[in-house]
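Same chain as my last thread, 308 residues:
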Amino acid sequence: MRLDLAVSRRFALSRRAAREAVRAGRVDVAGVTQDEPGTEVPEGAALSHHPGRPALHSVRTRLSVLHEDADVIVVEKPAGLLAVPTAEREKDTLLSRVSLYLQHRYRRRPYVGVVHRLDRETSGALVFARTREALRFLQQRFKSHEIEREYVAIVEGRPPESGVFDVALTGDGNLRRRSVARPGERGKRALTRYRVLEALSGASLVSVELETGRTHQIRIHFAAAGHPVLGDRVYRSPGLPGPAAAPPGVGRQMLHARRLGLPHPRGTGFVRVDSPIPEDFAKVAAALRGKPRPPKKKAPRIDRGARS
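reply #2:
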């Protein structure tokens, strides 16, 4: 059992509070201070919690850590923050925050490897590698589709209750705008599975799982099916009737990486983390629940399109 989970259960703390207590050096296992929340401890381990003990590490950072051990760190990416710098060399990115956090925590310059990315306006769980060996391992797992990824999104309209988009994507995002491949056009295979969680007013809350991980895959697939992600100003077709269903104040696309699961680089099991729904996403969903729902219309057919 993970140490933070054992502490949470033993001392009736929230999971977040338990993680912070361990990181601060306020938890002992059999009389020895442990500061890694992901440390495995046996059931019934001798645990003691010392809330008044001075913090072992003082780390001031705008970072929410979901999981941390010697090989990987999983953090929450807030909407509006770049995961990594672009050619403009931005200083405040999720990568820089993770690096600063680890540097302050361990008092040495850390290694932080970029495993994958999320769009600037997408929130949720993101993993970084803390060793080069872990980076190579995780990149290979992503390439071979051995990573569990679940997103939640609010999309316009009422798609079928569940479905699969198996539509190749073209474009590189720079010289050519990304889009679904037209019949006869070669592209990279992209497969997206989804199910509707809740019907809202003029929109739907959906759970989305990726089998492949192409750039902007979810946004492109739903937009091509006539159900763009709410707030997406790039892929929403201008030909769609009426304005987007978003209530006033929606400032970004309603897409959140809620769950991430990956095999541990040391072969010691599977790491699974959940990222809480952010406040802005929850407010939009609540606002749409408060409106009367329009009558259900026949959903458009999903065009499976061309494959690579």
